[in-house]
């Protein structure tokens, strides 16, 4: 530990994580701390298998320490002081000869879920006891990977000259349509929880050129599915002077960097066979297909779906597309009428828009496009969509201050993790998911 | 630009940021984009000073391009295509001989604030037009530094084996007292906006050992000061097996890393003379003083303040302390009665607690401590503070699953930026601040 107590002595000072022991020599004195995964008593000797966040270690006990260990419930939190020695065990390259056992916290004898994962529990029970559920390394690994992928994304943005921004989560008007916003009393006014940083990130390219944000956003939608949550982590970017094809290149490069990271990390075992082994290498080395909305319609009608221009793609249609394009692919050039007011029309085909979604099979992961930066066109589009330019006054005036052309996108991070790790429910990728029926713990 | 359009040609393809031009040779063809900071017409020649997020460049125009330039309002967003050449200007090492001027967005002739900073506006006017205010490089620089400091903090945590977590911002009970929480309807139940990740980060050390989060939190306090906001960015950490002295070491090391970064970044001009020049070097090389609460009382009473044991330190007291200790210092070992239920008592003096605040002058920046991990003591402390253990049921049960001893702290990031950059109002450090009277833009 780098930080020794300078004042009162810290009785629980651990010297090493279990994963750090293999670098040490036999005979080294160590203090490791963690949870009793298992205890075996074979008479004169006893063995504790101790788990910490980095792995497992075996410890051997005799005499008084063995007697003490017999009375400690499994999954209790303890510190073992001892010396590294060789072992006859087939499962461990070395063991700790215990000199002292210190119990920090005894565990209850009846635990709501089995943290070793031997006894399976259903997801609801696990989420009710999430902290204990995370003791299972298969589960904690999801969140260690999540943390690493977030770092990778931020580094990628900084390399590409994006500035990290923090936009407000409390907003004063239910601007983007607004039916899906949580609302509350904000000092005698009405406040809303932001659903996305869309308007703010567009405003910020006025001066900061390229911005990104990774932050929680909120959607009051009353539906319960395996791929939606009411609070979610969104990765948003916006960039001046780039168009939607350039944003797609950025997104594709980013996703491939993440895939390479997954491939090169030994501790990753994606259960998603689509992004494992050779399939993973193929994904990394080939461009993601780009399919126009109109081509999607042709294919879907050939497959018996009745879809006409201007229809949104239903779950059923997306499932059919997802069978053919079962990995990452872009759907580009959506009808303008299906897209929000801030999306730019295609000059060559004004009923189409400069827009894209990145899909994985039937799941939408990213939505983006070139933005309209001509304020008079923005106003017409608002009116077309039944929205009032007056309620967007604060936003529209920014476009009269020399707004550069710009493009951007938003990526649903929890859903991306779900896809990357082959999880069948988005709740598996979130520590404390929020849905219509779950608001605690 | 790394990402060329693959489909329709992108008419606004910039080749370089202005700061990248100095690496190029005379004669290179470039396309730069930005805002017209200034235009001078001297007859047969004209000069545009173009600003982008990285700096300024001078461009010289003749003939048709000069005629066109005369009609473009200042602060309009344009692209200049041209060739690098030498210059007679004293202010620029080279200039762009313009071949083509492309106007993306004309700026309005009457701007609400002057983005060159020559005409000053009051803060409210600036915040009402924040996007334009940010065109002033003195202002945008605050947020570029903010972005860099966030990266530094995250890298520091990862080096120290902290896992990034995302805890929920929507919570189901107004647990920590709760009078300061925004509340709203959440699918026929009551939901609240989290004020801190305190309970969640403690729960997560049960399995993840060391966690950190940088996220927005919310406080419904109806007060209007220069140092509080109702939405703020908090840096939170929690670590198993560390005590509060070790957390103070981590905090001090982190703050010093940030100070070194400020010192070594050429573009930083802190207006805070306390952390500039020699004062900055002194701060980096000397330990932050640690003063006990009881010693603070002695000093304050000597200075004429009437404070007795158990009193919180009033604004007036903190201002007096801040005159003597005018930079970073810790106040340690606060009375247990002043601290939340989750703070650990000092075994040697049970009326005191294992707690600390990091101050800068009279401003509190960080609050932290060793946590109570004994569930029966936690329950007594709740009752002592008039809170109901039953309403903390979800939280308390985690302590029966083998909870390690742990410590942590929370740092108010906006306030830290305020101190580091010598800003007199926290609103200067936040893009779109939220207070009792401001919820837009």
List the helices and strands and how they pair.
Two copies of one chain form a homodimer.
Chain A: E1 29-41, E2 46-52, E3 55-61, H1 63-70, E4 77-85, E5 95-105, H2 123-128, H3 130-133, H4 137-159, E6 163-164, E7 170-171, E8 183-186, E9 189-193, H5 198-208, E10 210-218, E11 231-240, H6 244-264, H7 277-285, E12 290-292, H8 293-302, H9 315-324, E13 328-332, E14 345-346, E15 349-353, E16 355-360, E17 363-370, H10 375-384, H11 393-396, E18 406-412, H12 413-420
Helix pairs in contact in A: 4-6, 6-7
**What structural class is derived from the secondary structure elements of chain A?**
alpha+beta
Please mark out the parts of chain A with pLDDT under 50 across 5 or more consecutive residues, or reply none. 1-9
Helix content of chain A: 25-40%
Number of E strands of chain A: 18
End-to-end distance of chain A: 32 Å
Order of helices and strands of chain A: EEEHEEHHHEEEEHEEHHEHHEEEEEHHEH
- Look at the structure and give the mean pLDDT of chain A: 93
Can you summarize the main beta sheet of chain A?
8 strands, mixed
Largest interface: A-B, 115 and 115 residues
Tally of separate domains of chain A: 2
Note the quaternary state here.
homodimer
Shape of chain A: elongated
Q: Which CATH first-tier class of the largest domain in chain A would you pick?
A: Alpha Beta
What do you see in this structure?
The structure is a homodimer of 441-residue chains. With 441 residues, chain A is α+β, with helices and mostly antiparallel strands. The first copy, chain A, folds into two domains: 18-105, Nucleic acid-binding proteins (OB fold (Dihydrolipoamide Acetyltransferase, E2P)), CATH 2.40.50; 132-289 and 325-429, Bira Bifunctional Protein, Domain 2 (BirA Bifunctional Protein, domain 2, 2-Layer Sandwich), CATH 3.30.930. Chain A contains twelve helices and 18 strands. An eight-stranded mixed sheet of chain A has the order 6-10-11-18-17-16-13-12. The first copy, chain A, is elongated. The two termini of chain A are 32 Å apart. Chains A, B: This is Aspartate--tRNA(Asp) ligase. Chains A, B: The record marks 90 as: Important for tRNA discrimination. Chains A, B: It holds the Pfam family tRNA-synt_2.
């Amino acid at each position: 530990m780098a930080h020794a107590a300078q004042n009162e002595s810290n009785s629980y000072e651990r010297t090493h994580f279990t994963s750090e022991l293999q670098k040490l020599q036999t005979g080294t004195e160590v203090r490791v701390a963690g949870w009793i995964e298992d205890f075996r008593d074979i008479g004169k000797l006893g063995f504790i298998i101790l788990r910490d966040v980095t792995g497992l270690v075996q410890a051997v006990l005799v005499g008084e320490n063995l007697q003490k260990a017999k009375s400690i419930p499994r999954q209790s939190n303890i510190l073992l002081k001892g010396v590294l020695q060789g072992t006859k065990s087939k499962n461990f390259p070395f063991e700790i000869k215990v000199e002292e056992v210190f119990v920090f916290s005894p565990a209850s004898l009846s635990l709501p879920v089995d943290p070793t994962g031997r006894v399976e529990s259903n997801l609801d029970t696990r989420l009710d006891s999430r902290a204990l559920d995370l003791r299972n390394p298969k589960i904690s690994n999801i969140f260690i990977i999540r943390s690493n992928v977030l770092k990778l994304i931020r580094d990628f943005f900084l390399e590409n000259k994006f500035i990290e921004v923090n936009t407000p989560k409390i907003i004063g008007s239910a601007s983007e349509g607004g039916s899906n916003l949580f609302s509350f009393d904000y000092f005698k006014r009405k406040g809303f929880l932001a659903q996305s940083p869309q308007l703010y990130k567009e405003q910020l390219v006025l001066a900061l050129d390229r911005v990104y944000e990774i932050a929680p956003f909120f959607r009051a939608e009353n539906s319960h599915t395996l791929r939606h949550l009411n609070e979610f982590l969104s990765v948003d970017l916006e960039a001046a002077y780039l168009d939607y094809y350039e944003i797609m290149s950025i997104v594709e490069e980013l996703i491939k960097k993440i895939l390479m990271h997954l491939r090169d990390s030994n501790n990753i075992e994606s259960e998603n066979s689509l992004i494992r082994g050779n399939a993973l290498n193929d994904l990394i080395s080939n461009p993601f297909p780009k399919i126009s909305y109109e081509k999607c319609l042709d294919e879907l009608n050939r497959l018996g779906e009745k879809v006409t221009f201007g229809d949104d793609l239903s779950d059923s249609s997306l499932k059919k597309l997802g069978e053919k394009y079962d990995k990452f692919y872009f759907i580009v050039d959506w009808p303008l009428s299906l897209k929000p007011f801030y999306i730019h029309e295609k000059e060559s085909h004004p009923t189409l828009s400069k827009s894209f979604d990145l899909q994985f099979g039937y799941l939408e992961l990213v939505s983006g496009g070139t933005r309209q930066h001509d304020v008079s066109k923005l106003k017409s589009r608002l009116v077309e969509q039944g929205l009032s330019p007056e309620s967007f006054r604060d936003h529209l005036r920014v476009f009269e201050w020399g707004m550069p052309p710009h493009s951007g996108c938003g990526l649903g991070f929890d859903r991306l993790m779900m896809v990357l790790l082959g999880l069948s429910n988005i709740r598996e990728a979130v520590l404390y998911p929020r849905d219509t029926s779950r608001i605690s713990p």
